[in-house]
């Protein structure tokens, strides 16, 4: 009953810090937790039973490997990969085909200064960065020994992008009080075809 939500289970994550991101992919639940300045955790749960998630252990990722910013975290899930935009160490791609042993499978060294949002849609990953605009990436087949070759930047649209949602060939991007509608049918040349301005912002 959406009008009367009821808690059916409480999980204590046993880390100091805060929960920064939550996503579901298939029968897995992914959590990003920031614990002080030393560790970032990606905790993975088995959702075979949605009301009784089972934690998959040994899914911690040390910060000196992931280089996750201490502020502003989000993640996207695509097949057996998760994508995490960081403030000063670019977009990180993590292979979770073995969820008990996540491996960094790719990265693109583009700073997303501020709280970047990320979404995976079809064959692309979109990052909305408050200081840099919308970035469109094309992940490549995973080649673990050469992670720098596994993520390509294919498109960019400038501005102060706060959030993004993609449906079919269109990206809906928040730019402050304005929502821009971008045609991304050609990801290498995104262009604006419309916009909405929030009431009272004229």
Structure overview:
It is a single chain. The protein is mainly β and 202 residues long. Helices cover 2% and strands 49% of the residues. The protein contains one helix and 17 strands. Strands 1, 2, 3, 4 and 5 form a five-stranded antiparallel β-sheet that branches. Strands 6-7-8-9 form a four-stranded antiparallel β-sheet, with no helix packed on it. Strands 10-11-12-13 form a four-stranded antiparallel β-sheet, with no helix packed on it. Strand 16 and strand 17 (191-197) form a beta hairpin. The chain is globular, with a radius of gyration of 18 Å. 35% of the residues are buried. Residues 62-72 have low confidence and may be disordered.
